[in-house]
Amino acid sequence: MQFHQLAYFVAVAEHRHFTRAAEQVRVAQPSLSQQIRALEHDLGAPLFHRIRGNVTLTEAGETLLPIARRILADTETARLAIRELDELDRGRVRLGAPPSLCTGLLPAMLAAFRRRYPGIQLELHESGSGDLRQRLAEGALDLALLAGARITADAGLTATPLLLEELVVIAAPDAPVLGDRLGIGALADVPLVMFRRGYDVREATVNACRAAGFEPSFAIEGGEMDAVLELVRAGVGAAVVPSTVAGDRFRMTRFTPDAGMTRVVQLAHRADVEPTRAVRALRSAIAGFVADAARRASLPPGIESLVDAIRDSGQVTRVGPAS
Asked: How far apart are CA 283 and CA 288, in angstroms?
């Protein structure tokens, strides 16, 4: 098994087409096909079903794909780490973040980082936390901000709790008033605009409703963050969202304290890969930004810092929610 064979395999798996994959990796299509056959012979199993131009992965191909992506990503990480040994004036960090943070706190954080390290290339990948966790495991991301209903342990990840964020209910400005505070049970009578699977807020909302003894009613489901906000503003239904995206465009209602509708944002990277200097610098910068904002009392309403101090090594000391 050779690296270029894995690269060819991943290209075919992503394009589902041998000719387009060959164009991407810049080899002749017969050569690519020959290398794929050699890889299949070496592994002892076919990787693709080839039926009249319809290329799909076999069970062996589905098993190999995340492993191949991880191997290729680790190789690139090693190359970049060696390049960064001299000084921290170049490098690349692939950062994943939920859409709510991409439009909230993250732009200011990344702007401050760019001013300090203009030579480091940043790649931002926006998606739900479930998707980001999978991409971290596959090696497609170096660092990710993962949100969830509670602090969770993952043997494959090293994670630092960063923020505690309140979840709220939003509705169109002219929608009926839901009250000053809502218990979870009140959602039983509220048609919800629901995020697609992969968003932590969807999981938190559905689990809270089921724990209260009912299934939530969806006015529409499957949206990304921007779509959900626009559907709510158009009056399709209400939505449970992080407090940072509520804004002035909506009628916002907070949950009662006993509802437990909050989420924890953690800063994570793979446990089996030593972060490059560029990754460590961004990790420290993000945590430092949160800690400084908490000390200045400049975090948005509904957010508490879980970061107390940044050590010189870039490691973060967690002491619990800000008081």
From this structure: 8
Q: Are 135 and 144 in contact (CB under 8 A)?
A: yes
pLDDT in tens, 93-129: 999 999 989 888 899 999 999 998 888 889 999 998 8
CB 163 within 8 A of CB 146: no
The DSSP output letter for 115 is: H
For residues 33 and 258, what is the distance between their CA atoms, to the nearest angstrom?
A: 60
pLDDT tens-digit map of 247-293: 788 999 999 999 989 999 999 998 888 888 889 899 999 999 999 88
Strand extents, DSSP E, the chain: 48-51, 54-57, 91-97, 120-126, 143-148, 157-171, 181-182, 192-195, 218-223, 239-242, 251-255, 262-270, 303-305, 307-310, 316-318
Number of helical (H) and strand (E) elements in the chain, helices listed first: 10, 15
Residue with tokens 């076919």: 46
Q: Is the pTM of this model over 0.70?
A: no
3-state secondary structure of 71: helix
What Å distances lie between residue 162 and 57, 89, 269, 308, CA to CA? 39, 26, 13, 9
CA angle 148-202-122, nearest 5°? 55
Q: Which amino acid is at 42?
A: D
Q: In this structure, what DSSP letter does residue 174 have?
A: T
The residue among 223, 192, 220 whose CA lies nearest residue 208 is: 192
Residues 81 and 88: beta-carbon distance below 8 Å:
no
